[in-house]
Amino acid sequence: MESEMGYTIRFDSVTCVSSLTLLTHFTLISHSSPNFFSLKLISHLTSSSSLFSSTTTTPLQSPSRHKLPSATMLHHDPFVSDLFATAISGVVAFSCLRLWEETAKRGLFDQKLNRKLVHITMGLVFILCWPLFGTDRWGSLFAAFFPGVNILRMLVIGLGIWKDEATVKSMSRFGDHRELLKGPLYYAATITLASIVYWRTSPISTAAICNLCAGDGMADVVGRRFGRKKILYNKNKSYAGSIAMASSGFLASIGYMWYFSSFGFMEGSWKKVIGFLVVSVISAVVESLPISTDLDDNLTVPLTSILVGSIVF
What we know:
Layout: E1 7-17, E2 20-30, E3 36-39, H1 78-106, H2 111-127, H3 137-143, H4 145-158, H5 165-171, H6 183-198, H7 203-226, E4 230-231, E5 234-238, H8 239-262, H9 270-288, H10 290-294, H11 297-312
Antiparallel strand pairs: 1-2, 2-3, 4-5
């Protein structure tokens, strides 16, 4: 196709899925120069025209290739694109963490509320960046880089090797650096393993992270404020907190199902909605048990979500 500026735009492959058009590759070539600029805009290859679809889609195949190139968003080279995505996600996560460290340092919120705000937002904000990564296996490994670094960070601070009072204050209940070796360490490990093992195409990773972050976080916030009526088998937990956990985890899961399906990474369906409800309710029940208090709900909640999710999805 000839443009007024003397450029030719050559479309190598254009494929339509329902109402969604996937532009897989185009090259801008200048007639006046041997140099050319190439830009790949490749959308994910399993997409649905509707969020809630009962049909199953299969990956599209190029007529000239059995395997299409990795989808990239930030650069035509998948490796460079993943490097950019890693940098952006790191900046986003670090900025969010620094925000809550500053609020803790300045005493803007109660320490317990500040800790739970960190708990709720960090994981949810981080997985918002998942669509930036490529579709090959390296994408999930790049996405796990900063959560993996955070595991090491929790270890060195928790063991007292590195002093970081702002981090300790924002993530611990009682200001003891050794607390970072439990809940915060399990939290970072959950996001790391969800990235590597399940990734954004699996509802299991969505359920595990949403129930851990939104569900468990809101359980504490609501339970402390409205949890006057305690659960019979655990006086440390309340009905209000457990209801808030199941509701928040479920709604967050549905939100991220819609989010990832809008990029074509996951197909939305009513079956998944019911599955997310089952996972969130059972996770809330397990969180209310005394064993979660004795161990750590940052450990029992994601393990329950993964186990139940493996059955229902």
